């Protein structure tokens, strides 16, 4: 941006040069990016923690961060086998220690053999260690009842986020009315809106049906698509299953209908399946898009383009700090696939410790191995506790007047709707805040409970929500849910 004459003299007087990079000169797409999960509420939560440490008196003794799907930060214990192999790989001298089971040692040696210089500290090839891509392919085959998976269609990534952004980058093209549009669910996981803003693509919202437990309805996809075609060129459809923040698990018929729709409308499908291990509700089952697509036969099986994403961040392992993930591409144009490979190579490689953890997740101990029993017990314990917490959350919230919570069928979050009195809405507007942001800020200040306002994920006009993880330990969760419900009642009285 050009400097005004006065600015020049001011700069000269101070002996300071204006910064090259200012809010006015920076990339405007970056300025548009918002990411609610780590937004202003979380910054305030950090400040409150600091104040508590300094001895400032508050109506609570700790801040409970129920804002982010970070299992281990909420006290979930890492799975022993994963950490044993990791420790052995990081410090191979431990291979001589009697404290580690033999199968963990064999695993560590197998992975180290596949690493550059037999060290976890070496770069890998950009698409990930070949041995691990092969293990991922075998995992997908087992998961999908024997449907083949080709390791050369699997790319390891820095968490699922990195692979999702990479695929979006491939899809973005055009200008004005030819700009790429990407259909995303509302409510959505804000990585999608943030990445689309950064890439200057057009976000096309389709609404999940809250009245039908956040079901995905093809009629709504059609509406969103028709409307979007007036101003952009929709090229991709993203589906999150199980859903974040909405916790629904899609029925197989729904997935078939989505695939038929994508095929008819020539849309590239992006299936975010990072919660594939997190399914709790009776009668709910995870069906991968790849499996359903393949079983639908021609013309879908051999033609519909798909990218499916998975991660070590969620599931029973919750190893999100290690940043492991993968994408499997199906029916992608080989020339585009080469371009994707090129793009990935610019970033060298995903973290090798994350790749290692992914390998262990996709090939856990076999029943005949010494670590099997403990691994199974730990895995089951985490998943059983999550299932109990999903039920408890739904139950306690639905007992509270003015709060309504759909069943948490899968993933790690509840996304209840809250009624906010008109005077609270008006007060929020006076303060320049979204009404549910106002509610969540007050909740944080008065109870120490940190949740994310629904406005950060998108919601139907005039409705208000918050997202809360089901991750706090069971003994803390019930009092937390009750405290939150009581706060809502008090807030409602105050503004009625
Ligand atoms: C739906 C969904 N997709 C992708 C991610 C990204 O996960 P990661 O990059 O840690 O694998 C998350 C994280 O919360 C998520 O909820």
From TrEMBL:
One of its GO terms (cellular component) is cytoplasm. It catalyses: L-alanine + 2-oxoglutarate = pyruvate + L-glutamate. Keywords: Acetylation, Aminotransferase, Cytoplasm, Phosphoprotein, Pyridoxal phosphate, Transferase. It comes from the Eukaryota. SUPFAM superfamilies: PLP-dependent transferases. Pathway: Amino-acid degradation; L-alanine degradation via transaminase pathway; pyruvate from L-alanine: step 1/1. It is found in: Cytoplasm. GO terms for biological process: L-alanine catabolic process. Its EC number is 2.6.1.2. The keyword Cytoplasm applies. Pfam families: Aminotran_1_2. Residues 104-484 form the Aminotransferase class I/classII large domain. Signal peptide: none annotated. Its main location: cytoplasm. One of its GO terms (molecular function) is pyridoxal phosphate binding. Its cofactor is pyridoxal 5'-phosphate. Belongs to the class-I pyridoxal-phosphate-dependent aminotransferase family. Alanine aminotransferase subfamily. Homodimer. Catalyzes the reversible transamination between alanine and 2-oxoglutarate to form pyruvate and glutamate. Participates in cellular nitrogen metabolism and also in liver gluconeogenesis starting with precursors transported from skeletal muscles. This is Alanine aminotransferase 1. The lineage of its organism: Eukaryota, Metazoa, Chordata, Craniata, Vertebrata. The gene is GPT.
């Amino acid at each position: 941006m050009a400097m005004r004459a006065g600015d020049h003299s001011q700069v000269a007087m101070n002996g300071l040069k204006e910064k090259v990079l200012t809010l006015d000169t920076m990339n405007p797409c970056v300025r548009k990016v918002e990411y609610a999960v780590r937004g202003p509420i979380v910054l305030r939560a950090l400040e409150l923690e600091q104040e508590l440490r300094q001895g400032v008196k508050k109506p609570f003794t700790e801040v409970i961060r129920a804002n982010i799907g970070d299992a281990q930060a909420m006290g979930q214990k890492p799975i022993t086998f994963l950490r044993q192999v990791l420790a052995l790989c990081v410090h191979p001298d431990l291979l001589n220690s009697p404290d580690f089971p033999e199968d963990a040692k064999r695993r560590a040696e197998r992975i180290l053999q596949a690493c550059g210089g037999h060290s976890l500290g070496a770069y890998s090839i950009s698409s990930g260690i070949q041995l691990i891509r092969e293990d991922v392919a075998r995992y997908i085959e087992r998961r999908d009842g024997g449907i083949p998976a080709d390791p050369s269609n699997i790319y390891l990534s820095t968490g699922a986020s990195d692979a999702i952004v990479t695929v979006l980058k491939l899809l973005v093209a055009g200008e004005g009315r030819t700009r790429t549009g990407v259909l995303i669910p509302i409510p959505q996981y804000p990585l999608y809106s943030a990445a689309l803003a950064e890439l200057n693509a057009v976000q096309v919202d389709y609404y999940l049906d809250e009245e039908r437990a956040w079901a995905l309805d093809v009629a709504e996809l059609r509406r969103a698509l028709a409307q979007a075609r007036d101003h952009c060129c929709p090229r991709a459809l993203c589906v999150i299953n199980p859903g974040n923040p909405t916790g629904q698990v899609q029925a197989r018929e729904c997935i078939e209908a989505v695939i038929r729709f994508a095929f008819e409308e020539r849309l590239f499908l992006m299936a975010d399946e990072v919660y594939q291990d997190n399914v709790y509700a009776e009668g709910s089952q995870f069906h991968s898009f790849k499996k359903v697509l393949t079983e639908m036969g021609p013309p879908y099986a051999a033609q519909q383009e798909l990218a499916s994403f998975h991660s070590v961040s969620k599931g029973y392992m919750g190893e999100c700090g290690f940043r492991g993930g993968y994408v499997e591409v199906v029916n992608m144009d080989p020339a585009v696939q080469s371009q994707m490979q090129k793009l990935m190579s610019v970033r060298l490689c995903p973290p090798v410790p994350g790749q290692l953890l992914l390998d262990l997740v996709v090939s856990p101990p076999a029943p005949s191995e010494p670590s099997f029993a403990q691994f199974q017990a730990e895995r089951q314990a985490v998943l059983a506790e999550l299932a109990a917490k999903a039920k408890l959350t739904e139950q306690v919230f639905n007992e509270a007047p003015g709060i309504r919570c759909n069943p948490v069928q899968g993933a790690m979050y509840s996304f209840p709707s809250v009624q906010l009195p008109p005077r609270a809405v008006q007060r929020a507007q006076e303060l320049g805040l979204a009404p549910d942001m106002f509610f969540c800020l007050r909740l944080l200040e008065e109870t120490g409970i940190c949740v994310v306002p629904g406005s950060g994920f998108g919601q139907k006009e005039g409705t208000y929500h918050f997202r809360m993880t089901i991750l706090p330990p069971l003994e803390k969760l019930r009092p937390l849910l009750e405290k939150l419900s009581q706060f809502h009642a008090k807030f409602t009285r105050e503004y009625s």
